[in-house]
What does this fold into?
Amino acid sequence: MRRYSRIIGTGSYLPPRRLTNADLVAELGQRGIETSDEWIVERTGIRARHFAAPDVSSSDLALQAARLALQAAGLQATDIDLIIVATSTPDMVFPAAACILQNKLGANGCPAFDLQAVCSGFVYALSVADSMVRAGAANCALVVGAEVFSRILDFNDRTTCVLFGDGAGAVVLQASATPGILCSDLKADGKHVGILCVPGNVSGGQVLGDPVLKMDGQAVFKLAVGVLEQAAHAVLAKAGLKPADVDWLIPHQANIRIMQGTARRLKMGMDKMVVTLDQHGNTSAASIPLALDHAVRMGRVKPGQTLLLQAVGGGFTWGAVLLKL
Ligand code: UT7
It folds into this structure.
């Protein structure tokens, strides 16, 4: 009998502090940084984002999302036998946020590791977890995207600090006799490291370099639209499906213009796309599981439907996962 993996529960969490564009414009104004609600909405589609309190870490956000995903799956933390946390903003240099989360959850003993593929992190993590479940290395995986990007933003750089937010999303992936995850396609091209990076590191007990996010927005934009279309076609071809067979496109939530461009290229209506960007901003590896969970809880995305998840991020990394819920 063939072995597949299937999502059996979703959860997500946003920290309570919500900043509308007007709130952020006022805060930045106090620093002498000029921006406006009109510019942010027109160029990005973002209207609000959530920022975690200073003492809250990625594993704290992940814990709330994971508990809700487990509850939705009807499982206990002790049922989990693999934890993967996709994050670029872990609690510490080491150990992994996944180990910290494991201890907070009370799922001690199972393998737990972080996966760093920036905004593509959740798609990468879901694909890795699916491979491990199909190979028999795990029966019940917790896959989380959790970020506190507010910690790595330069609030003197208006071209980046208005774009990002904090949050976490999680899924429980269980072994199944029927698919579940239909296929995935992951890619990376390291020649683009410089266009989206946090170029600092810890050395000799000090932070060296500039540990805040740097982005060449236009270069990222141009690359993103092309590779997202490629990733979608790659998974559809592997599964022998067409864009019309997809019930919901759940892309990484970075810019509404990129998302609209992808929908146009795939000839899919925006009514088939889950959009939470306006309320969450870009939450990097958390954006897709956050969008998925919101759509599931609103009753929009339903069991049995075909979903195409796709993402692009620093590295450059990109990829897609096609699945039946
Ligand atoms: O999650 C990882 C993937 N990341 C992305 O997908 C991000 C991709 N890139 C983007 O989303 C867009 O390139 C941005 C939203 C970052 C920028 O939009 P854009 O349409 O490419 O704007 P631009 O960089 O061409 O800037 C246009 C103007 C500039 O002024 P001048 O030179 O025309 O006078 C900027 O200085 O907008 C100015 N500007 C701002 N004005 C007000 C840049 N940021 C702001 C701001 N408020 N926050």
Observations:
- The pocket of oxa(dethia)-CoA is lined by residues 35, 39, 43-44, 119, 158-159, 162, 217-218, 220-221, 224, 254-255, 258, 282, 313 (CB under 6 Å).
